[in-house]
Amino acid sequence: MNKLIVNGKNKLYGKVDVKSAKNAMLPLIAACVLLDFEVGFLNCSKVGDVTVMLDIIKCLGGKYRYEDDTLFVDCSSLYIPELPCELSKKIRASVFLLGPLLARFRKVSAVTPGGCNFGDRPIDMHLDALRKLGAEISGKEHLYLRADKLEGAKITLPFPSVGVTENLIMAACLAEGETVILNAAKEPEIICLCSFLNRLGAKITGAGSYKIVIQGVKKLTKKITYFKPISDRIEVGTYLLATLNTGGEIEINGANFIHNVAFIKKIYNNACKIAFESDKIYLKCCGVGNGLGLVKTAPYPSFPTDLQSPLLAYACSLNGKTVIEEGVFKNRFSIVNELRKMGAMIEVSGTKAIVLGTNFLTGAILNACDLRSGAGLIIAALGAEGVSEIVGVDVIERGYFEIDKKLKLLGADVSKG
Length: 417
Ligand code: EPZ
Fold this sequence. Notes:
Elements: E1 3-7, E2 13-17, H1 22-31, E3 38-41, H2 48-59, E4 63-67, E5 70-74, H3 85-88, H4 98-105, E6 107-111, H5 124-132, E7 136-138, E8 142-146, E9 154-156, H6 162-173, E10 178-182, H7 188-199, E11 203-205, E12 211-215, E13 226-227, H8 233-244, E14 249-253, H9 261-267, E15 272-277, E16 280-285, E17 293-296, H10 308-315, E18 321-325, H11 335-340, E19 345-349, E20 352-356, E21 365-367, H12 371-383, E22 387-391, H13 393-396, H14 403-409, E23 413-416
Parallel strand pairs: 2-14, 3-13, 9-10, 17-18, 21-22
Antiparallel strand pairs: 1-22, 1-23, 3-5, 4-5, 6-8, 7-8, 10-12, 11-12, 14-16, 15-16, 18-20, 19-20
Helix pairs in contact: 1-2, 1-7, 4-6, 5-6, 6-7, 8-12, 10-12
Bound molecules: ligand EPZ.
Ligand EPZ binds near residues 124 and 329.
């Protein structure tokens, strides 16, 4: 069955290793389309979305393999610039392939992507940006993109979109001339992608800032054997919140504190002690925290939207009020109705969720509507009285590898049903 059964109130104690970030791996795999040799990515976990992205690469004629936790991707034999419909509909990140495929083949056909269902998720900005590089685009549900050549341009993004910035960077690497991206996304995953591409011979400056400049080159020719992606900052935040919600203690290995500053500022010294080293974060709980006041999600370096649902779940058990304002997506509060089944007191008004903390949530039968709200339900269930059944663990495993095993090792009473 596709369920996670959680018997709450066990404190989490122990260590957990986080691996390469799902949201870094997905654009890195797409960037392999620009290469005619194999590259190995270190410290990878087989999360669901990465597997789907790799299967799409296989459908295009590419190859991949694992050696332990090193993922090797080889796009030298790619020959079909047509994204497979069924697989593309499974993940939003299939859209990240448009730019590199256009750069390599000067044509690509695709369907609009799928992914987490929290409201409307258009790809208009992706298409507008590629048009500005010279792409001609036709079709609605089925898209056909072609370009006699890609020419650098100055492009101001209407919103610092992570995926649009990544798509544009990959296409512009092989465009003629200079591309300037203004209002670019600044996420660590952008810096990671640009570091990878520059190692291969791309000429990108400004990654992580408002303005990214790409000097197009004919080909990416610098062969590298291995690349180590950044660790998963959202997975780090999720395990910290799970520990907080059970009153335990955790050491997270592979965590980059800098990537989580906005999140840690919100939980710091609120009934917990936090310490860190270059690639470790320690957290020890000391009681039940107070309400968090106002938490607004926004593009990096602000509080990440992907930790909004996990934080909302944690806020249900605090002493006092937390107001969460979602500033990136229009409708990302699918977790609220599920938490109400556990006794949570939450009012939603527009893009705000007002959480009145109570120390008493009880287990219930819950549905994981999307990846991060599913993770939030696990956090709530771990701290609740009694047993919860979370239906849709496959949705959660799109971004959290073996989360049941990791939680069990930390002392949680969880099992797959
Ligand atoms: C990336 O999605 C992440 N996914 C998301 O993580 C993350 O929530 C999001 O960035 C914001 O940080 C991956 O990296 C694979 P956006 P992306 O384009 O690029 C609107 C997870 O849980 N928009 O930055 O798709 C959009 O609707 C996932 O791991 C348009 O209107 O997000 C949203 O309101 C969920 N038109 C805003 O921009 C477009 O063409 C930001 O979205 C593109 C985006």
